Amino acid sequence: MTSIKSKKLTLDEYLKYDDRTDNQYELVAGELVAVPPESPKNVHIALFLLVNFLKFVPVNRLSHKAEIVISGFRATTRVPDLVVLTDELATILQGATRSTITLDMPPPALVVEVVSPGKVNEDRDYRYKRSEYAARGIAEYWIVDPQANRITVLTLVDGLYEETSFVGNALIVSNVFLQLQVTAEQVLNAG
Fold this sequence. Notes:
Blueprint: E1 2-3, H1 11-16, E2 24-28, E3 31-35, H2 40-53, E4 62-63, E5 67-70, E6 76-78, E7 82-84, H3 87-93, E8 100-101, E9 110-114, H4 119-136, E10 140-145, E11 150-157, E12 160-166, H5 184-188
Parallel strand pairs: 5-8, 9-10
Antiparallel strand pairs: 1-3, 2-3, 4-7, 5-6, 7-9, 10-11, 11-12
């Protein structure tokens, strides 16, 4: 991910920004940052999870391109690989012109990040997003790491995430999807 503009943007400026391309951006500490295309493996993993989540929630509660405004003193947005909305949030976003979850909206029920190769991506998904999503009050955050062959499920408890890692044929345990019957290996081999 590379910064595009040297001038810091406010959240309002970012939400109005249009460079007339199909490029996707996140706003990180006021800087416009290009989000590179995902690898086919990462796309397949996200699609595999999407198909499995559809067994338990209606399609209007799932998004693969929703952006989340993160609270804090620096203007930041994140675009997770997959977002599970609460019923209330799905209702609020119904009819919206942009899939942006703002600070005045409730947080999503769950976000999934599929880690791309590289130290920068690991730091972003394991460190920065972890604290940002916890501060935003997101109940469950999954880090799917194909390089480490591990899925980490972070559950929000008293404002901090408690983590459980799943590898091999271990069934993934989720507080959001109690009926889920998939293993870490099934998810990681989807790509």
